[in-house]
Amino acid sequence: MSSGFETIMGKDLSSYFDIYTHASGPSGSLPLTPDMLRHSPSGDLFGLTQNVGMGWDPAKLLGKQILILGTQGGIRDEDGRPIALGYHTGHWEVGILMKAAAEEVASHGGVPFAGFVSDPCDGRSQGTTGMFDSLPFRNDAAMVLRRLIRSLPQRSAVLGVGTCDKGLPSMMLALAGMGKLPGVIVPGGVTLPPTNGEDAGKIQTIGARYTNGELSLEEAAELGCRACATPGGGCQFLGTAGTAQVIAEALGLTVPHAALAPSGQPVWEEMARQSARAALKMAESGLTTGMIITDRAIRNAMAVHAAFGGSTNLLLHIPAIAHAAGLSIPTVAEWAEMNRNVPRLVSVLPNGPEHHPTVRAFLAGGVPEVMLHMRKLGVLDEKSLTVTGNTIGETLDWWQSSERRHHMRRHLLENEGIDPDRVIFSPERAKQAGLTSTVTFPTGNICPEGSVIKSTAIDPSRVDSNGVYRHVGRAKVFTTERAAIKAIKNKGIVAGDIMVLMGRGPSGTGMEETYQLTSALKHLPFGKEVSLLTDARFSGVSTGACIGHIGPEALAGGPVGKLRNGDWIDIRIDLHRLEGTIDMVGSSEEPEDSDAGTKVLASRLPHPDLAKDPELPDDTRLWAALQAASGGTWRGCVYDVDRIVKLLEVGMNTAEGREIMDS
């Protein structure tokens, strides 16, 4: 054997070739009845054969089949040692939850099944072409998850275990689309912050801070090593991962006090067993996901999003969940009205004003504690059902006097020295502490369809006494994120600039997330004096005057794609009224007004460098076309099959369409 083959194939060892060609098979017999043999589909019968072939006790085959779907990634040894890494900590320990749930199902006579659809990491793909697959993955994963559910015909209920930015939203979409089945979400929890170090949001800025002289090489290396202080769970801030967990609970899809539990700890593992019991109870009682995810549940989710100050990415995911469930899709006007009516009550990373990690929000009482305050304000629909079979109102009655609530809050105060009422505020204390409402939806001649800013995350020092953020400045235009971050690192961006990143919406990049830009600006001394406009989106941990989701996107003919270096832009955000405008106001030596800017934009062609990213995958191009045909970002980037089919039929019935079909 040549040395090359020997390296790959190994030395010939006779034990490798001791192969047997038949086996006795499982002992016992299937619990068949004459009726089953006469009337059951062959698939049901062969399924029993497969089950005992995998080692299940033939005497225990006829219990309720409970499907446990998870986003598990990586391969762990029994002691937790990595054998093959996952994409992120958020799905690294999910298998422990799945195992606990499965054991609980079996202990009650059920037959657990498990399937896996792992998920990517938005942090890992920041600034790379991997980001082109991030948002499209959500739709693809939801479809695969639904196919897995349907492919187990005898399932009585589904448990969906997920944690992070796309895995958990896709799981919620999947269950929402299976409204006739019982379904429970099991949130994968959060990782802990280092005792001494930086959280996983700030640590993503070490490159920009090192380049600008804010960190030494040694500091960057040491801080980067410690940021994920425990091996499982979503990031320690209320980004998209944490917000998605909160929204799952707000919808009624989880057991009480499930969101943001510390991954790997007993309270987190017990939550999986509680969820398994809830799924079995749903299967017995006939309670289905469609009875839980209703229009009133969607409104509750929007209200809780506002109260927590959640990620703007949920403005894409909540409408998609509503669409999957066949419900009314929230409009921009409804989002704006909700944020006017519901004050922000939670003080955690990244919004503050006190920057607590999300595990403290869990200890302070999590979603039910926030809902107690919301109930007093009358902004919660208490008649919505949850997976326990109880309403939100009944859940809150239990929570208010529960031992669990008092133990958790006392633990936070006595062991951590943190007043739980300084993590989850009452409305009165929130107002006194200066917590502002969550999001604003500016319009203007740059964004006639609208845009989004997490207005509560604007640096307070940049807001005047009337609660208005105002920035009039000249544009510095970029058509790639790579060029934009290079400018930040190389001091091409200075205080007073308005950065414009165009062509990074669905058609250009799959609507990439641009957190490396917003995080760099946050943690550089001049960053609070810079604004950012883009047709892309932001991470939930983003802060500052960052306006995204600009519509129409540049590549769909949006005015944002006509901006040039040196254009004057006027940004006005009223944090009290939750109103805003983003206008181009001229291109001469001094700013003019929006009418003048509108005329200039109307006379221009798109930016000469505006184009789809040359590395955009065909898969994402298809996603972009399908979601655009379905209503685009303001309808949640969904696939509306009826609209797509109608458009195809109309197109195929035209002469041009027939010519394409025949080519």
TrEMBL record:
GO CC terms, sorted: cytosol
UniProt GO BP: branched-chain amino acid biosynthetic process
Keywords linked to the UniProt accession: 2Fe-2S, Amino-acid biosynthesis, Branched-chain amino acid biosynthesis, Iron, Iron-sulfur, Lyase, Metal-binding
Record keyword Repeat present: no
Superkingdom of the organism of origin: Bacteria
EC top class named in words: lyase
Dihydroxy-acid/6-phosphogluconate dehydratase C-terminal domain span: 442-583
A Pfam family that the UniProt record links to this protein: ILV_EDD_C
Family label: Belongs to the IlvD/Edd family.
UniProt name for this protein: YjhG/YagF family D-xylonate dehydratase
Record organism: Cohnella herbarum
